[in-house]
Write a structure and sequence with these properties.
heterodimer; A: 210 residues; Rossmann fold; 5-stranded parallel β-sheet; 4-stranded antiparallel β-sheet; 6 helices; globular; B: 219 residues
């Protein structure tokens, strides 16, 4: 089990005059599966971007700690695995090359055995040397999970995790979410009832609109 | 090492997509051809030759150097980069890429200029070489940070030269002056004031870029 925690204090996010959410506080500790639910445009993606340190809240703070030490924004990316529909991998490289570059740029070891296992788990082992531009949308979604898991992150953030996936792909993802939720923090932002049903604790963004 | 890995990724991506190199090469050829055709058989002054040399460099830089960030934004891979690298790693990697591109581009421009313009004769080669190196570093640093700023804008093509011009003006003016000194054969000691200006420009731009890039890159 990880010793990681994410604490949000009184988050407010606005885009111009439009309020996305207000006074949103939560704490995710050690492990578990946490859900973020809300209608289209309710701010799910905005909230997970704030959690991942990709954008700043208008007010309030978000603090990541590991083993009791606060993680600065310069190193935060090494603790996070992220999947989202707007995450794009490099079309001009093969899947394997993409992951190899990502490991080098992250400054972590390219663990070939783990990557091969992840390719096998997501049923892409025969297509790992194909260019990403030749992948279907479902295959790209599977590859994003390999990208998210390759460096063994302790915080996994999944936005619409099952979009574009077939039933077999969904089953693999659900199994992985349950497995990772037992040892790490997994955050799932989705509209899908089946996705959200995996989460014992859910933040409903409609409750933070005033 | 992480920045070098990002640079390697960009170089391999460029070799496969020819995103920046083709537009740069075409621009350099077209710009020099237009100058040659417009001059015709006229004999132009050394002052004008040195000035036009930096005009070609400035607009060539404007046509290709923004690609380092614009290509990531257009392909939607900016988020991916944000998820795998710290802002300083991204800036350093992109800066190395643009430095290589600027030095390669300007070496070609200089060789073409020397071959095609009889008036472009360098008498103080050391002064020209130092101007070339320090000027190109300033050009690459400024262009990289401005490219990061304009990458998210709607009208990137227009905004890039407009935003770059006032920032690059001190560098271009001083570099033009130093190039003229090198063509005149002015001694090194007499050009020390102008050299100090472009060295200071480079130091200020590198420091400011690293301090500001975190804010430019996120949000």
């Amino acid at each position: 089990m990880s010793n990681y925690s994410v604490r949000a204090d009184a988050l407010l996010k606005t885009f111009g005059r439009r309020l996305i959410f207000n006074n949103l506080s939560f704490e995710f500790k050690k492990n578990g599966i946490f859900g973020i639910a809300g209608a289209n445009g309710s701010g799910k993606s905005t909230l997970i971007k704030i959690i991942a340190g990709l954008i700043s809240p208008t007010r309030g703070s978000i603090i990541h700690t590991n083993e009791g030490k606060v993680i600065d924004s310069e190193h935060l990316h090494n603790y996070i695995g992220f999947v989202s529909p707007y995450l794009i991998l490099y079309d001009e490289f093969t899947a394997w090359e993409n992951l190899s570059y990502f490991a080098k740029i992250r400054g972590v070891k390219f663990d070939e055995e783990r990557i091969k296992f992840l390719f096998y788990r997501f049923s892409l082992q025969t297509r790992k040397d194909d260019y990403v531009k030749a992948y279907s949308s479902g295959m790209k979604q599977r590859l994003k999970f390999i990208f998210a898991l390759m460096h063994k992150p302790v915080l996994l953030i999944f936005d619409e995790p099952t979009s574009n996936l077939d039933d077999e792909g969904k089953a693999v993802v659900y199994e992985m979410i349950k497995e990772e939720g037992g040892k790490n923090i997994v955050i799932v932002a989705s509209n899908e009832k089946t996705d959200i049903s995996l989460c014992p604790e859910i933040i409903v963004l409609e409750n933070y609109k005033e | 090492m992480k920045s070098y890995a990002l640079f390697q990724k960009d170089i391999n991506s460029e070799l496969r997509t020819r995103y920046a190199v083709n537009s740069l090469a075409m621009f350099v050829i077209v710009a020099i051809s237009v100058i040659l055709f417009s001059i015709g058989n006229e004999k132009i002054s050394e002052n004008l030759t040195g000035g036009l040399y930096w005009v070609v460099i400035f607009f060539s830089a404007m046509s290709g150097l923004a690609r380092a960030f614009v290509s990531e934004e257009e392909r939607g891979t900016t988020l991916t980069l944000q998820l795998i690298a710290s802002p300083s790693t991204v800036f350093t990697g992109k800066l190395i890429f643009n430095l290589i591109l600027v030095f390669a581009m300007n070496s070609v421009i200089t060789l073409l200029y020397a071959a095609l313009f009889d008036e472009f004769v360098i008498k103080n080669f050391l002064l020209f070489f130092i101007t070339f190196v320090v000027g190109n570093i300033g050009l690459a640093v400024s262009s990289t940070v401005i490219a990061a700023i304009i990458a998210k804008a709607g009208s990137k093509g227009t905004l890039y030269p407009v935003l770059s011009f006032p920032i690059l003006l001190p560098l271009i003016l001083t570099s033009v002056q130093l190039t003229l000194f090198a063509m005149d054969g002015t001694r090194f000691g007499e050009a020390i004031f102008e050299l100090a200006i472009i060295v200071c420009y480079d130091i200020i731009m590198i420091s400011a870029s690293y301090m500001l890039f975190d804010f430019i890159w996120k949000d």
